[in-house]
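[recover] target loaded
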């Protein structure tokens, strides 16, 4: 779609710098609303259209050379033109080395100064120009973008001894803006999105979040939470804004305070430490993680050896290991399985981190059995229902997709396993925290995108990714459901009646 791209650059010096990357797709449109409207009257482009150039920054934390990508272009009449693919364009701009802030750009019929600028900043707008609203018009079905490199920002006034230097700096960023717009336009296409179902929140994550919210209601802020309650940056940020204080260890929690243990569970040593410090504990450990702890305890108590299959350093694994460290051997991969020292007992049972991939575990258990033929299975499957269901659903979607996006944070174990499952199906796959992480280069030439989400990912982040892709052209969304989940866990008594 790059051939269809039209980029309006109001000033000659802007057009010149953009042409290095975009050639004759750059149209010098002239400064101000009258000339912009005239350009639009001469004809509306059929392909993607963008406005690029320098602009006025409205907020003090923007510096000359920073790039504002419009999430919407606000018109003087109070209406606005949404730019839903802004997060993807922002990602491309960052890849080209630019400092980027997505946010509203406001168009005004003339250059604004002083108090007028302050008033615009108070509405949440990041940058101001005198062309974009007129150049982009209503846009209709056509993908649109607006990029303004800040040439002046408060507190520096528009006319200032350093203005010329700032304008030169801003203009110097335009070749990279052109390259990013080329990547953005190359991703423009109609698409199918296949949503894997089930995806997003599992019962253990819903319960853990509910526990923190209820604890805040009952005890009031601050409520301390040991480690991230679930491995998702957005969930943690929302709860932190509501008054939760996330700590790494209990010595950061004031004596006598309330502390929530995360969904990943804790070792008996951490429980003992909480008691020593007279902390009020609310335990959000997922019952399916607690079940694995119980299995490890039982095996160790009868003198057996626990082979724990999992990833070192993950909080769930640290908690399970802590149940019987002297009787537990951690095995992370096939190489470690093949080096397993002979156990000192005939009673050897493996247990598994709840969020691993079934394929990996089967492979590892085969390797372990070659070393320890009498290795016993755990009393019941340790990989939890949510992990299994999300992996199965993703396999179904990956079979028909050219690209898979898994929405989840980098430290989400089950999110990373979903990416591996997709790649094993032969499809390119990426883990993205949200739309800001989606690189338009991945989408170039791709007509069918499969999307899933880790068990700790809020559903609205999936919606945001779909909306951003929808900003690149019409999207037909289909959900492929492989099973329905109706599992709920009861809450701990400390918060049950809130
Ligand atoms: Fe529990 Fe599984 Fe969800 Fe982890 S992924 S919180 S083990 S249900």
């Amino acid at each position: 779609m790059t051939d269809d791209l039209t980029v309006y650059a109001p000033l000659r010096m802007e057009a010149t710098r953009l042409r290095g990357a975009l050639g004759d797709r750059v149209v010098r449109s002239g400064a101000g609303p009258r000339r912009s409207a005239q350009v639009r009257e001469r004809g509306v482009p059929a392909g993607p259209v963008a406005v690029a150039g320098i602009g006025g920054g409205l907020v003090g934390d923007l510096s000359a050379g920073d790039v504002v990508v419009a999430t919407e272009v606000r018109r003087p009449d109070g209406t606005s033109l949404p730019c839903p693919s802004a997060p993807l364009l922002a990602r491309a701009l960052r890849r080209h080395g630019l400092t980027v802030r997505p946010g509203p750009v406001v168009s005004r019929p003339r250059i604004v100064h002083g108090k007028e600028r302050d008033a615009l900043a108070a509405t949440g707008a990041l940058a101001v120009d005198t062309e974009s609203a007129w150049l982009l018009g209503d846009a209709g079905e056509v993908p649109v973008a607006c990029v303004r490199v800040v040439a002046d920002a408060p507190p520096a006034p528009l006319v200032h001894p350093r203005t010329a230097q700032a304008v030169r700096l801003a203009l110097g960023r335009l070749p990279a803006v052109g390259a990013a717009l080329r990547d953005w336009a190359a991703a423009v296409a109609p698409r199918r999105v296949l949503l894997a179902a089930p995806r997003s929140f599992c019962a253990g994550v819903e319960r853990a979040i509910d526990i923190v919210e209820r604890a805040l209601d009952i005890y009031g802020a601050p409520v301390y939470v040991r480690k991230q309650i679930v491995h998702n940056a957005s969930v943690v940020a929302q709860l932190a804004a509501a008054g939760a204080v996330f700590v790494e260890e209990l010595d950061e929690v004031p004596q006598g305070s309330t502390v929530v243990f995360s969904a990943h569970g804790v070792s008996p040593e951490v429980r003992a430490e909480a008691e020593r410090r007279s902390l009020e504990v609310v335990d959000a450990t997922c019952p399916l993680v607690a079940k694995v702890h119980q299995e490890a305890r039982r095996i160790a108590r009868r003198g057996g050896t626990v082979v724990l299959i999992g990833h070192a350093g993950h909080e769930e694994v640290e908690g399970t290991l802590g149940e019987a460290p002297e009787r537990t051997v951690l095995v992370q991969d096939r190489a470690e399985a093949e080096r397993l020292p002979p156990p000192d007992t005939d009673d050897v049972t493996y247990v598994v981190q709840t969020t691993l991939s079934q394929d990996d575990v089967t492979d590892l258990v085969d390797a372990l059995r070659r070393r320890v033929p009498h290795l016993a299975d755990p009393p019941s499957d340790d990989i939890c229902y949510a992990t299994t269901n999300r992996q199965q659903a993703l396999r179904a979607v990956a079979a028909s997709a050219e690209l898979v996006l898994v929405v989840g944070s980098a430290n989400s174990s089950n999110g990373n396993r979903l990416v591996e499952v997709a790649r094993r199906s032969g499809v390119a796959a990426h883990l993205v925290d949200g739309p800001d992480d989606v690189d338009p280069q991945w989408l170039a030439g791709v007509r069918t995108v499969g999307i899933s989400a880790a068990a700790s990912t809020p559903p609205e982040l999936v919606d945001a990714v779909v909306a951003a892709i929808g900003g690149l052209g019409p999207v037909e969304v289909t959900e492929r459901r492989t099973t329905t989940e109706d599992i709920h866990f009861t809450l701990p008594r400390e918060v049950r009646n809130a």
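[recover] notes: The mean pLDDT is 95.
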